[in-house]
Hints:
With 116 residues, this protein is an all-alpha fold.
Amino acid sequence: xxxxxxxxxxxxxxxxxxxxxxxxxxxxxxxxxxxxxxxxxxxxxxxxxxxxxxxxxxxxxxxxxxxxxxxxxxxxxxxxxxxxxxxxxxxxxxxxxxxxxxxxxxxxxxxxxxxx
Length: 116
């Protein structure tokens, strides 16, 4: 992720999700997680996305995985790479988690294809 002149990424996902309802969650999502953690130099955004997909798959967090699979695709991870990663993860995280994550990816790809 790139930062702007103010040193932030301009990420507003927390604000978009919660508005004024949960100001703490908005702050930590937008300013700490995306402006600081995701913007660090140690890993590329593409690699951070793969790590995040792996963690969410392992934990069975399909609601968050839905966003992060799409985000990984925007960061340059191909559908084939995601399919392979999810297959690999199924053996380490449990078959149901791998199947659930693959179902989410399938839905994302099919929704995109039907919208085209």
